[in-house]
Amino acid sequence: MSHQLKEFSERFQKGVPQECDSEMECNGQAMCCAFNRHGTLFAVGCRNGTILIWDYLTRSKAKTIHASLLSAIISLSWSQNGKYLVCASSSSSILVFDVLEGDCIKTFELPSHSTKVQFHPKLNDVFLACTARHSAVVVNMKNGFKTVPSLDTDESKVIGAFDTEGTHLYIGNSTGKLYVYSYDDFTLKASFRVTNTPQVLKSISFSKCGRYYTVNAADRILRVYSSEEVLICGVNGEPEPLQKLQDIVCRAGWTGCCFSGDGEYICAGSLSKNELFIWKRDLGNLVEVLRWKNGRGFQDVDWHPTEPSIISLSRNIVTLWRKTPIDNWPAFIPGFTELDDNIEDDEKDLEFYINNGGKKPVKENNNDDELLEVDVVNVSPSNRSANVELEDALLYLPAFPAPGIDED
């Protein structure tokens, strides 16, 4: 009975990565990573100033962008259509690249070096930049800068993020307070203290649905909040976190927190060990711990938008994790037998006409098929999906043969 319950639970279990699928090496130490919106490509920023882009399906390197020769890539983000990459370096420069061409199309200088950049979820020419010593700024590549108002005298170590719809800005600082602004006019909608004592807020991560987000603080606790509840509490509110996630045994800090594509799981990397922890979002229980030996020093992690796959960075190794496939052989028809070698099939004449009483179907004389003209020149719009975002999106990069290689 227990075996049947285990098999039943495995069939309906949500996707959680369980094993290492592949490992890819970087030319320099990997610092940050991010999937594009549709999960077809993922980018990795390195300490030597290069950005490496991999194809998710083939696990092959699709493009190398030399962003900066003198500074490391600290943070990067994809635009909504996947055509642009914005990256923040250890200097005060922010660079925007055309992914297809690999060219830098915009350069912005800030008063201090940026700690995080993020494209607007709906706009391809707007991104948020968080600096180490000044207020966060919203950069419009056509209209210039807009500084997010700061209500605290201490503006150091500011972190921030757009919500999933891009209607609100979430800004935190080193005093442990979090502010929620309207994106349109920067009106303060809500504010609350995350920690009881002044603690540095390290990162904010949203689920794909936008209903939940996590706040990673310096007290080594990941707090999960409801977006709706925080807005209801308003300014100087006191919302209670839905979950508090922590390593009770080692008391390790967290980095690179992210949600699964369906928002049911939360993943974060341990700062002290090469381990990835995965929790159930609604219950807060630990469901999986991923460990690896190659590389030292965990850097970043990101979850695939639609599949149970995770990429993690450790020194110069990019590790791709996936769910262990389950072979369910009893699901085939009763007469199914496994063959060691190929054999010639002895097909009976009436084998596939069982539903018709063993008789071949009578074909009606209809000349409509002969008169039908098929247009193979004009491309008609697809009706498979009403998502217009795919029409102008860059999903894949073209592959070019390597020069100087003779094929026999």
UniProtKB/TrEMBL annotation:
A single cellular component GO annotation: Set1C/COMPASS complex
Keywords per UniProt: Nucleus, Repeat, WD repeat
Keyword match Thylakoid: no
InterPro entries, per the entry: RBBP5/Swd1, WD40/YVTN_repeat-like_dom_sf, WD40_repeat_dom_sf, WD40_rpt
Predominant place of localization: nucleus
Annotated compartments: Nucleus
Official protein name in the record: Uncharacterized protein
Organismal lineage: Eukaryota, Metazoa, Ecdysozoa, Arthropoda, Hexapoda
